[in-house]
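With this grant's support, the team has encoded backbone shapes as discrete tokens. A representative record is reproduced below.
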Amino acid sequence: MKSAGIYGTHWVRYGTAADQCYLEGEFRATYDQIVVNGNMVAHMPSALSVFLTQRVQKPFVIDPQTHAFAHDIEYLLSKSKSSAGEIKRSWRKLIEKYGEVLEHALLEEKRPLDPTDFDNEVSRKNFTKNVLLFQRDAITDEIKEGPDRDYVEFLKEETGTSTTVMPPAMLVAPYFFIHGPLAAGWQEKNLQFIQDSRSVVTAEGIEEPLAAQLVISQEILADSRRRDELVELYAQQEPDVILLWIDQLNEHTAPESELESFISLLSGFAKKKIPVVNLYGGFFSVAMMRFSTLLNGQFAAVCHGLEYGETRSVIPLGGGTPVAKFYSRQLHHRLPPRVALRTIHLLDGMNAVSDFHSNVCGCRNCQEVICEDPEQDLIAYFETKESTFWRAGKRISMDFPTGQASENCTKHYMWCKEWEYRDMATTIDQLKQELLKTDQQLRKPIGVEYAGHPLAWSNVLR
């Protein structure tokens, strides 16, 4: 699907600079495409340009994050002592890149955007153009003119690394969250942004595909009339791809009716022959993408973060602090230590190293870590250290995963994800049987919170 700017099924969202070690080296071949947030590009364009175009050389997409400016402005404010109450520098830089409409609302009037801010056609089109050209030029300009251009030339001479400038795989039209009292207003503006974006792409001679990001609430997902309307209206704009984000859609806890609604939305776009990428999805999405003939191959890719990001709330902004958990191949779910250990016991993974590798996980990291005594070796995934800090005037002590435990859990997660996307060769009927077997083995002893989804998935997958 290169024609739609899609270079593979496995997308990963870049979260922080600490993620880089899990996206290059031995992990570089485990995924196909990277999504990076616009505020990060605005804040550290030099470092990201070298990372994306020289070190990993993977197709990338810049999420313009325009929705962020329509929420309570408090979410954009710094909490550090030196700049408390001010808009964070990364967000401020993005506001300045996007121009007058945002500067007026957020910097001058200190309020979130409203759909009526884009009633002026000229202002709306200028905003749209700024958003698209930022995506097109931010990384390219840094490679050509930024402070690291000499380093890029050094890489070329020392290692033979190509300095070919890589534009984004696609450009994303401005978008806002469709929900609540302003759902109709933002829906109307989103459709206008796609129209305006097509005009910009044509006028600027941009060859990259144009994506429409559709961000909706669970209430809208559950409304069949609204689902059908959205599919029809967005299809009329003829985007090259739909980037889908359903607020707080948790595939592990969602009832069957919600999963059915999700499939119905995907099917609607499939009938229109518009490829869809789920920006926050877990194994249920991967299974639908890989094995369901219902979607006619139009469910094109699924994106996640590093050990997090399989579900995401639109509000508040930011992802919090990822917590180290052990990813279960059988449950396709991250488990806290107590639940993971109980699961491993139930799968007869504690008896011997060979049992652990055959019954629980034999990924590269588990081959290295679980090598003598599973019960003792598993400490490498679950080890914690106490940290003391002040919160609301009180001294708090909490246990946090050690750096090594977090690293092991993330490496294990990434290898498991590669297996799910590529190496778990099976048919959908075989997968349904595996899910039913897991349900029978684990649901009652583990409980519905962590093991209730295999039965629901088996009932819904088709």
